[in-house]
Amino acid sequence: MIGSSEFWETEREAPLLNRNANFFCPESAAALQQRAAKLLLLLEERHGAAAVEPQLLQPDCEDEAAKRIFVLDAERTFKSPQFQQQLVAVLSSLWPEVGDYHQGLGFVASFLLLLLPAEAVLQLCVGLHRLYLPGYFKAAPVAYVRDARVLQKLLQQQQPAVAARLAAFCCCPEAYCSKWFVGLNVHVLPFEALLLFFEQLLRCGAAFLFQFALALLQCCSKQLLAAASAAEALEILRLDPSKFPNAAKAPGQEAAGSFFLKIVQDAANIHLESAAAAAAAAAALLRCCGAALLLLGAGTGAGR
């Protein structure tokens, strides 16, 4: 999309580009598209060249309710019917593979469509669904709720003061980390950091989600510990632009946006030795109270 002059004429102020910070622009489009073309190579390097077969754009969704949601999400994302229809076509083509829909999938597909042809976006989204985040793109994503609880256990072990502060505010992880884990930080990170996040996720696998989340919580720990209310804590956790504008700088750095890049870069230094034990504990918790936890997680599904 970003290589098209029509895109910039109609979509420069589109909601999807609120976190662009002029990183995507007509002058940078060709270089960014070349960089994005390597995303599939990262998937293949990790999982093998035949891990995900090439995909064809075939809008085969026969579920009328789902199609209405696709249209609504496209209208919230792009201004022009031309680009809205491209997103609807991709989501409809993904329906037979996923068999369900979470708005996070719409976020991911829309960001990738800025950079890649529809067929490449389909292949990446199928790869994310099968190989990285199985079950995350369901309207009621049990797998996501489980992994949110894994994050909670890891946070308790690695950052107990932050974990206690969030618990005091009754901030449950499945409520605050869906935009990190399911929406893959679209609408959270400025685009420069977001593209780096996608590259690291495809290179490192799903464990990178936990590393990223812990790095974010660590970078925001002072603000979280000083938060006066649950509402303020949630603003911090979603990196609300009112608190973290696109130009936010990391301590000791002068580059605009370095705060967000530092989170993604710091994630590589987060160790997850205790992740297996945390996963086992979260799975046991989900077995005991799965229905209640699922209801909590389901609120992050198909509707906005």
Most strands sheet: none
CATH class of the largest domain: Mainly Alpha
Q: How many β-strands, per DSSP? A: 0
SS class: mainly alpha
Helix content: 55-70%
CATH topology description of the largest domain: Cyclin A, domain 1
Q: CATH superfamily assignment of the largest domain? A: Ypt/Rab-GAP domain of gyp1p, domain 3
Shape: globular
The ordered string of helix (H) and strand (E) elements is: HHHHHHHHHHHHHHHHH
The CATH architecture assignment of the largest domain turns out to be: Orthogonal Bundle
**Total count of helical runs of at least 4 residues:** 17
Q: Describe it for me?
A:
This is TBC domain containing protein, related. One of its GO terms (molecular function) is small GTPase binding. The chain is mainly α and 304 residues long. Helix content is 63%, strand content 0%. Mean pLDDT is 92; it is low at 295-300. 44% of the residues are buried. It has helices at 5-11, 29-36, 39-47, 64-77, 81-98, 103-113, 118-132, 142-158, 160-168, 173-176, 178-181, 191-204, 207-219, 221-226, 230-237, 258-267, 275-298.
Topology readout:
Elements: H1 5-11, H2 29-36, H3 39-47, H4 64-77, H5 81-98, H6 103-113, H7 118-132, H8 142-158, H9 160-168, H10 173-176, H11 178-181, H12 191-204, H13 207-219, H14 221-226, H15 230-237, H16 258-267, H17 275-298
Helix pairs in contact: 3-7, 3-12, 4-5, 4-6, 5-6, 5-7, 6-7, 8-9, 8-17, 12-13, 13-16
InterPro entries: Rab-GAP-TBC_dom, Rab-GAP_TBC_sf, Rab_GAP_TBC_domain
GO molecular function: GTPase activator activity; small GTPase binding
Protein name: TBC domain containing protein, related
